Amino acid sequence: MIFELTIQIRVSDFTKGQLWYETLLNRKPDFIPHDGFAEWEVIPGCWLQLAEGKPSIQSGPLRFGVPNLELEKQRLIEKLAVNDFEVFSREEVPVKWATFSDPWGNQIGLFEYFDKNEEQERMKTIIGG
User: Which residues span the domain enclosing 41?
Assistant: First the structure.
């Protein structure tokens, strides 16, 4: 049985990387066990680990669900100077999505459910409430 998930992203400049991911996630790390390593519990049981090291170029993307993709897109353009940020959708897919790169080439993305009732049900299942 799998009960938790960790995903690691590596950056060559840890100090700048930590600041970049703090801005992306809108908060400080939940856990910093040692130099060159930080973790955020993105949702219960799902951890994003940031480690100093050689990035895995073109891996991913790692996508985060957000309630308003356009609003989040604008925030990331303003706060992180994310430039290449096109939103996509397909009729048969229940979400719209966008993918961009962090300054180290790691592929990151966002997605938003079209059906807000489905989105609310997913949130209840994942984070409660």
Answer: 5-127
